[in-house]
Amino acid sequence: MAxxxxxxxxxxxxEEGTLVAWxxxxxxxxxxxxxxxxxxxxxxxxxxxxxDRGVLLKILVSEGETLEPDVPVAIIGKAGEDISDLLAKVExxxxxxxxxxxxxxxxxESATRAEPAMAExxxxxxxxxxxxxxxxxxxxxxxxxxxxxxxxxDIDLRHVRGTGPQGRIIKRDIESYRGPGAAVARAPVxxxxxxxxxxxxxxxxxxxxxxxxxxxxxxxxxxTIDADIGPLAEAREAMNAALEAQGxxxxxxxxxxxxxxxxxxxxxxxxxxxxxxxxHHHQVVDISVAVAIDEGxxxxxxxxxxxxxxxxxxxxxxxxxxxxxxxxxxxxxMTNGTFSxxxxxxxxxxxxAAVINPPEGAILAVGTIRTxxxxxxxxxxxxxxxxFTMSCDHRVIDGATGARFLAAFKxxxxxxxxxxx
Amino acid sequence: MxxxxxxxALREAMLExxxxxxxxxxxxxxxxxxxxxxxxxxxxxxKFGDRRVVDTPIAEAGFxxxxxxxxxxxxRPIIEFMTWNFSFVAFDQIISNAAxxxxxxxGAIAVPIVFRGPNGAAKQVxxxxxxxxxxxxxxxxxxxxxxxxxxRDAKGLLKSAIRSNNPVVFLEGETxxxxxxxxxxxxxxxxxxxxxSRLARPGTDCTIVTWGRPYxxxxxxxxxxxxxxxxxxxxxxxxxxxxxxxxxxxxxxKTNRCVIVHEHWPYGGPGAEIVDRLQREAFDYLDAPxxxxxxxxxxxxxxxxxxDKVLPTEQRxxxxxxxxxxxx
Lengths: 421, 328
Description:
The complex is a heterodimer of chains A (421) and B (328).
Chain A: E1 3-6, E2 17-22, E3 29-30, E4 35-40, E5 45-49, E6 54-59, E7 66-67, E8 72-77, H1 84-91, H2 97-101, H3 108-112, H4 116-121, H5 144-153, H6 171-175, H7 182-185, H8 202-217, E9 220-228, H9 230-243, H10 252-266, E10 272-275, E11 278-281, E12 287-289, E13 291-293, E14 296-298, E15 301-302, H11 310-325, E16 339-343, E17 362-366, E18 370-376, E19 379-393, H12 399-414
Helix pairs in contact in A: 10-11, 10-12
Chain B: E1 2-5, H1 6-20, E2 24-28, H2 44-48, E3 53-55, H3 60-72, E4 76-80, H4 91-98, H5 101-104, E5 114-119, H6 134-138, E6 144-146, H7 151-163, E7 168-173, E8 180-183, E9 198-201, E10 206-210, H8 214-227, E11 232-236, E12 239-241, H9 246-255, E13 258-261, H10 269-281, E14 291-293, H11 304-310, H12 314-324
Helix pairs in contact in B: 1-7, 3-4, 8-12
């Protein structure tokens, strides 16, 4: 049966071509791969060879015409065949787009040697080592849902292994797909060790509940200040020298508790709690000290820290910490603080932001001592610095108030003698 | 709520509508003195008298035509076929007159008539008396086709059918008359809209669309499938023309698969219509081909063992659901 031959696309970028010269004339017998014409494209003058066998029944364009791909240029068929219908189609503006792209299947061998330029454009075949990966051109069977999901999730279905009939990719395949190559790397889910599940202790559950409540209901904000810790460290050494005879010692933390307590007296607005619709201004300074124990965290309270000496605070903290670890604390020893201090300096933490222990209005997070160069009187000298971050409940402590507290606190630790004022 | 049998629900619907509107009357074979071949019209002759409950000769074409004429001049007839198999004798009246007069009179003459009666296979009534007639009538524009599965739907939809200004084909389940189900209490009037499907069983894994007698087969199959971990969502369209696919599409978007179960032959028919609509309306949500479980494509055999094979069985429903779920 006669067919219309269109101008082939002789290079991937060819948008038009000029038919330079016909090498056959009407009535010539044509074999597959015979040279039909020469076509000048954007790249070069290319050979236009036949995919078909038959007689060149009609030449439709004259030499020198510039044409777009698929425009009918000739009709090939059996000798004497009636081509009036085809001519009418050409008249009506038919193109040969489908015919030009696929040579008849029985002539596949000639199709494979069609145009070198086309072959170049084909992507490289995927490596056979990747299971589930289909070769280009192989039809991927997948459900409409899967195709939709693949579009949404930008998944290349060539990588997804199908478990439906005939290897159809179905919903569960794309749901369990973890990315290209993952099928090899991952053992089936059932063979992976499951997480160890531990029932939370009642202390853990209490911590979880209270801290969640705090973070969800208390509007936290954070202020950080950097202070020279040298004077306080020197004061500590002097105190410890004096206490040596009694076999006692104070820690830097004990001094910080005292300093915070004094600062709370100087900026009493920070020593307050938001309760319901009221602000409770505490008349005592009770400092909660965060103590890490094996199962979690406890916050025993040093009562009246502002009125106690540092050595007394040190004794109390040590006692509270020991009993906290032994779980011997009474509930009343862990409640009703007015301010908290948490120290992670011993772990080298430079600074951190702690979660407020409601209904307290603030918590002071203490970092490690950093030895670093500081500028003092225009000269660089070795300095010992410490950073403090206070988390504040904005309902009771405004930014300026919190800042005043930290400034007072810094003043105290940089001038430890003022604690005595 | 109280429990009523399907036949009692239908009787209540007619009784309430006949009390409400004296243009409504019942006509058919044995509807009066014999109290109805299936006792649906029991007591109505006594209550309304023989001008409104009319026994007819065995002449379906005749009394269907009389009913259509009565409707054209302003009455609201209920025409009972002793079974829908006998409606074939009146087919021309239903198709050529009831369904066409409104259009051919350019909207001047409405035909507010209800044709009702038992439909579908019963037990060993053989090939000529086992027709499930929805496909014949649902094919015809101009008709409304209702096939209620439960007593509640039977009552609420028959009342709406009697009030409809269109000719309604109302297909009752011949084997369902004794089925009991919840129906709103007397005095609580419920009109179920024509053309609204119902969620019969919520589920997550596979949608099943069904109506009529197989509704009960499907509900039993759904329980067995649930035991295997497949939760079916069952949707009853209730009305086959106009057909409401909105719930089906919504369900399909969730389950991604659907089986349609009906007691009609597979060729053409409502199941094929539903498949066509769902594949277009929910194409991108399909994870498996839509399947139908239907009566087998043969005239109904008389032998009981063969009849059981021809009708949709629980096992065929389970197999189809597992196929579309890619389950073993």
